[in-house]
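quick one
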Amino acid sequence: MNALLIQSPFPDFESISAEHVVPAIEAILKANRSELALIKDRAKSADLVQTFHALERLGARLNEAWAPVEHLNAVMSHDALRTAYNTCLPLLSAYETELGQDRDLLGIYEAIAAQQTALPLTPADCKAVANALRDFRLSGVALTPADRKRYGELKQRLSEQTSLFSEHILDATDAWEKVITEKAELDGLPETAIALARQAADLKGYDGYLLDLSSPSYSSVMTHATDRGLRQEVYEAYTTRASELGPQAGQFDNTGLVQKILEDRIALANLLGFEQFSGLSLATKMAESPDAVMTFLLDLSNHSKSVAEQDFDDIARYGLEALGLSSIHPWDVAFCGDRLKRHRFDLSDEDLRPYFPVQKVIDGLFEIVQRIFGIEVIPVTDMSVWHPDVTTYLIRRQGVPLARFYFDLYARAKKRGGAWMADCRCRRQDPAHGLTLPVAFLTCNFAPPVNDQPALLSHDDVVTLFHEFGHGLHHMLTQVDCASVSGINGVAWDAVELPSQFLENWCWDPDALNLISGQVDTGEPLPLALLDKMLQARNFQSGMQMVRQLEFALFDFRLHNEFDGQPETLRTILDEVRAAVSVTPISETNRFQNGFSHIFGDVMGYAAGYYSYKWAEVLSADAFSKFKEDGIFNRQTGERFLTTVLEQGGARDALELFIDFRGRAPSITPLLQQEGIL
Ligand SMILES: [Zn+2]
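structure w/ zinc ion:
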């Protein structure tokens, strides 16, 4: 039996194998096509509400089979799976295009929309119908047959090219390693990082210590290694990944792909009547126009640039006076920054690690969300997993099961870097089959436990965990029964980071820190003296961090708002953006754009949407300011956030929901205050 075809509340990962993937997806696509033909045949005489639910079911069935495949391809990549995954991409893309351009299907949705007030549909159902009509337009339903064909080709090619872009980064990251024989060469690195390098060497059968380009290894060298030459070597390997330069020069080069992706995106946007890709991207977002996005980013930049310049001057002065560095190279910035931070606050990120053993943090996180939202999180053992590191949980509220989720927290080979939440099941109420509860994948890349010691998280890791858990709550606490707008489905991209960045705030609150910290040997919570230093250091270099994010956001947005097909344009925009906002030196060989998977690793992804992080940060800081007024564990305020934002998912417009919660439109002031910029 093909494990991907079994309908169940959550997948049986132990039974899924790469050979199942293509047959399962082909079978579902075939079944969906014949069912769709039946639905269309009967549409004239059938009950429109039943038709609507039948259509929703088709999407859910496909998603429930594909979500675990997509997940496994990201966290347990191997050749057979990758091949199967890539075989499915064009099939899915063709199917999606076919649905989006099906005029009979459009006719059914138009009929539902025309009669919706008379039909027993929920407001969420009506929102789903309105979104469907919008998406038909964006899928080229109104195009001529020749243009429709072209649309399909562009979509399919983009799906292949962006997938290849991601593969190149993964391969380039995995391809580089450096064996260090003498421990002295790792001078400056914390013991946990050295032990990790030792363990990595052991796993591969090397003597000594192994450095690689996974994020724990890369960032520990850049932040701590006193050997400037080593920092430079690792920096160059990392920032030239997937380019024509560096140790794997040309082997996984994404340069040509970036150009092709940009060309195809603009062609796609033109077909649909948009001058630039930015217009197509914003058609589904909260921001109203390209001007609104540019004004927003430039407004933040105007407030932050001088603070960022001051931050960098501090680093440069400290580098010269205390470390004898007459100039700061790109590979010195994180190192000098950390030294200055330690000097100024007598605090290193490493000092905090022993206070954040992973289990303590997880238990504290669950306690915090229980206090705010009245939910219980319980470990369970009845869900099969893809790796022994994975743990599984159930969420209940007043005894009623609401959702389940997986934690896959540690970095390992063949696992995509970064941290993210993805859906495995979406909440939906199907009149024929009952209620499906949401299931979420929560994935991070923390340094794994070493030598039977529990994994110790940095405070940054703790923030990351809360961030992803915030996305998870948005997906899992939804009370919307219509899959296409339940949880994070149908939420405007630039509002999607609201719950995640919102939850991060508890990582900085003294009362919450008491719950999530406990010294690994003694269990003692974070001492007051360390806490004070940590809070003082919170906004250290916040100006520099702000302009770095603005640099990415402006580069992405301008690129997709001004691209003219000329290969030099990318370089020009990048140079202009850096001249306008960047305050740190950048190496001539830096090819960060070739590894910018947020905007090039997916057909749409964050393309012309990277600004969303800042946009949603404004929303989240402003929402949190309400908790600062009322008390961070205030149950009423928590309940209000739960019912106005988390439970609503994509069933209503993001701005409307925000105003419902906050009582007014969002303001940028709380964010600038929170960052110490204002
Ligand atoms: Zn996020």
